[in-house]
Amino acid sequence: MTALALTVSDSLTITRRNLIKVKRVPDLIVFATLSPIMFVLLFRYVFGSAIPVPGGLSYAEFLLPGIFAQTVVFGSTITGASLAEDLQKGLIDRFRSLPMARSAVLIGRTLSDLCLNVLTIAVMMITGLLVGWRIHTSIGEAILGVLLLLSFAYAMSWVMAFVGLLVRTPEVVQNASFIVIFPITFIANTFVPIDNFPAVLKTFAEWNPVSAVVQGARTLFGNVVPGAPEPNGWALQNPVLYVFIWVAIFLAVFVPLAVRTYQRTASR
Amino acid sequence: MSQVGLSVQAMSEAIVVDGLMKRFGENTALDGVSFSVAEGEVLGLLGPNGAGKTTVVRILTTLLLADAGRAEVLGLDVVREADQVRGSIGLTGQYAAVDEYLTGFENLEMVGRLYHLPKAEARARAGELLDRFDLTDAANRPAKGYSGGMRRRLDIAASLIARPRVLFLDEPTTGLDPRSRLAMWEFIADLADGGTTILLTTQYLEEADRLADRMVVIDRGTVIARGTADELKAQVGGQRLELTVRSAESLPAMVELLRPLALDEPQADEQTRRLSLPVSGGAEVLAEALKRLDGHVREIVDVGLRRPDLDDVFLTLTGHAAEEAAPTDQPADEAVAAGSTR
Question: Number of folded domains in chain B?
Answer without folding.
Answer: 2
